[in-house]
Amino acid sequence: MNEKEILFNIIKEPYYCLLEVHVHYANSPITSKLKEVIDKLIFRDRVRKILFDLSKVEFVDSSFIGAIVYAYKNLLQQEGKIAVVIQSASVSDRFLIAHLDTLFKIFNNMNEAKNYLIEH
């Protein structure tokens, strides 16, 4: 991982915050940086809805999935929501095997995810 590489892009929309992940391999070093971003969004910026765009991600390890669950749990305490957009079949499988679709919405279409967060 190059220090100057942009790992995430954050776009604050009126009804939610879009967090785009710009890595193909989401592992432990990426996870620590993601948790820092999540903490800033939830605790400093008071964001209550986060849309994780994992459409460029081809692999996630358990620590990265744990960071998404961390965001879910923190937002749940504050009546917030998350949604996740996944394009890769292997990434989707990891989320579904862990039954994360029972905790939060997982989409393969960005517009559907955006509409869900706007409407809920």
How is this fold's topology laid out?
Elements: E1 8-12, E2 17-21, E3 25-26, H1 28-44, E4 49-54, E5 59-60, H2 62-76, E6 81-86, H3 89-97, E7 105-107, H4 110-119
Parallel strand pairs: 2-4, 3-5, 4-6, 6-7
Antiparallel strand pairs: 1-2
Helix pairs in contact: 1-2
The separation of the N and C termini measures: 36 Å
Q: Can you give the helix content as a percent range?
A: 40-55%
Low-confidence segments, given as residue ranges, are none
Biggest sheet, strands in spatial order? 1-2-4-6-7
Do you know the CATH topology?
A: Transcription Regulator spoIIAA
CATH C-level name: Alpha Beta
Architecture, according to CATH? 2-Layer Sandwich
- Share in β-strands: 15-25%
What Rg, in angstroms, do the CA atoms define? 13 Å
Mean pLDDT: 95
CATH superfamily: STAS domain
Biggest pleated-sheet summary: 5 strands, mixed
Summed up, the helix count is: 4
- Number of folding domains? 1
Structural class estimated from helices and strands:
alpha/beta
- Rough outline: globular
What string, H for helix and E for strand, traces the elements in order?
EEEHEEHEHEH
Secondary structure: number of strands: 7
Structural commentary:
With 120 residues, the chain is an alpha/beta fold. It has one domain: 2-Layer Sandwich (Transcription Regulator spoIIAA), CATH 3.30.750. Helix content is 42%, strand content 24%. It has helices spanning 28-44, 62-76, 89-97, 110-119, and strands at residues 8-12, 17-21, 25-26, 49-54, 59-60, 81-86, 105-107. The strands form two sheets. Strands 1-2-4-6-7 form a five-stranded mixed sheet, with helices on both faces. It has a two-stranded parallel ribbon with strand order 3-5. β1 and β2 (17-21) form a beta hairpin. α1 (28-44) packs parallel to α2 (62-76).
